[in-house]
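Hey, I'm writing a tutorial for new members on how sequence and structure tokens pair up, and I'd like a real worked example in the thread rather than a made-up one. If someone can provide the structure for the chain below, I'll link this post from the tutorial.
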Amino acid sequence: MSSLDKPMDHQPGRHRDEGSRSATEAALFEAFGGVRGMVETTVPGLVFVAVFTVGRNIHTAAVAALALSLLLGVARLVRKDTLKHAFGGVFGVAFGAVFAMMSGDAKNFYLPGMLYTLGLAIAYIVTSLAGYPLLGLILGPIFKENLSWRTRNPGRKRAYTKASWAWGLILLAKSAILFPLYWWGDATQLGWVKVALGIPPMLLSVYLTWIFLAKAPPPIDVFAEMEAEEARRAEREKAV
């Protein structure tokens, strides 16, 4: 049987592609918390707007959202998930809840998150223009490539730049919808629209990142290179 007659699953190139895509999926889930992380960042806002819509009480809505966020964080700790994912959402919700209660304006529950989203969008775009795309800085250590993509792997640098531009533009579009509602809409309108825009933009951003990185060259494992160099140095010392 010729190599052309062999099933595709037995071709090494296909296995390398599948391994690269699996590694990319794992890295994205680790960096962004997966679908569960997206849901956990959206549900407290849903609870806030639902409770506020019914009772029109900022304190009750804020406490309900914060209590749920704490419960989700504790659940992550029990499952021994990353502390970043366990507490990131809690701090964000707590900041918004305190801000809303102190100001007496329910819309301010969402303002810290909106400012963070806008700032993140700007960071993605500015770092891409500067040649240090933010997504590469985030995912580089997870892929064990650190900054090797910037000088030694131009294909991955291009992929990180494209992905960072995608994140930046998508988050800018999200901000362009939310801030007019913050200025001229009411809290209920802002809340429901923000909930609706919680998961879809992030899913689109993660999907585009996966597409760009899956087509890029594999990462250079700088940690493995360092270990190999240490092993060679030890062998030379023994030979002497």
